[in-house]
Design goal:
Elements lengths: L1 E10 L2 E11 L4 E5 L6 H8 L7 E6 L2 E2 L5 H6 L2 E3 L12 H8 L8 H6 L2 H20 L15 H14 L4 E5 L7 H16 L3 E5 L3 H7 L2 E6 L2 E6 L1 H6 L1 H8 L7
Parallel strand pairs: 3-8, 3-9, 6-7, 7-8
Antiparallel strand pairs: 1-2, 1-4, 4-5, 9-10
Helix pairs in contact: 3-5, 3-6, 5-6, 7-8
Length: 254
């Protein structure tokens, strides 16, 4: 589904990502790990169109998409979340999720102004679907809530619900468990596994090694912007370079 080849990005002469190559098979859960400053989020930003690469190739189902803006990638089935939830605090939880579905809605401006019955029915259906997404991510209790009144852990799951509302084929999750307590982390782990079972291809950046080792089928390890290792969880866990650079230093933890 996704092929990244010799991808590089420099900021002011500093290489944040350098010559990174890997691929992601359709229907799998793929993880990117590495120490702070390893280039993980920059890699995500490159693939999802927030930052243009200095060089290299990004292919989605064989189509070159390097440098395309996020909205173009969204139309191609790509969605993402962020390390810090990018939630509209002036909207309700339901409305935030409905925003994620906007690319699939075909109501035009004139119809909206006229409030045609079809649009009213579409809005009602969209709200019901948004409520279903909230329930899926464990936020059913916040269906009637304003986003600004939700706790941090619920906001993290709300952002996942919004991404899922776009019905992506490829979902990027940037540190979905960051800032969560152990119970919330376990819930996110189960959710990611469920998303993977539904057929959505998932790529996640995450520091919680227990979560990564439990859900990822393949792992890419970055260090100083370069790919240090790649393989199945057991291979990565036993790799001496990874142990020295990351897992050992972190004692297997976050």
């Amino acid at each position: 589904m996704l092929s990244v080849a010799r991808l590089s990005k420099s900021f002011g002469g500093v290489a944040a990502v350098s010559d990174v190559t890997f691929s992601v098979a359709e229907g799998t859960i793929h993880a990117v790990i590495g120490p702070n400053g390893a280039g993980k989020t920059t890699l995500f930003n490159l693939i999802t169109g927030l930052v243009a690469p200095t060089s290299g190739s990004i292919r989605l189902r064989g189509e070159e998409v390097a440098g395309l803006p996020p909205e173009s990638l969204a139309r191609r089935g790509v969605a993402r979340t962020f390390q810090s939830p990018q939630v509209s605090m002036n909207l309700s939880a339901i409305e935030n999720v409905m925003v994620g579905a906007h690319l699939r809605l075909d109501a035009g401006l004139l119809a909206a102004m006229a409030r045609r019955p079809r649009l009213v029915a579409r809005d009602r259906a969209a709200r019901a679907e948004a409520a279903d997404w909230l329930a899926l991510v464990g936020c059913a209790a916040y269906v009637g809530a304003e986003a600004r009144a939700m706790p941090y852990g619920a906001l993290k799951r709300l952002e996942i619900a919004r991404a899922l509302a776009a019905k992506p084929e490829l979902l990027f999750l940037d540190e979905p468990a960051a800032g969560l307590n152990p119970a919330e982390t376990d819930a996110v782990e189960r959710l990611i596994a469920e998303i993977g079972r539904s057929g959505v291809t998932v790529v996640l950046v995450e520091h919680d090694m227990k979560l990564v080792m439990n859900v990822a089928e393949r792992i890419v390890v970055l260090d100083y912007g370069k790919k240090l290792a790649e393989g199945a969880p057991d291979e990565v866990r036993a790799n001496p370079d990874v142990i020295a650079a990351y897992l050992g230093a972190a004692d297997g933890g976050a």
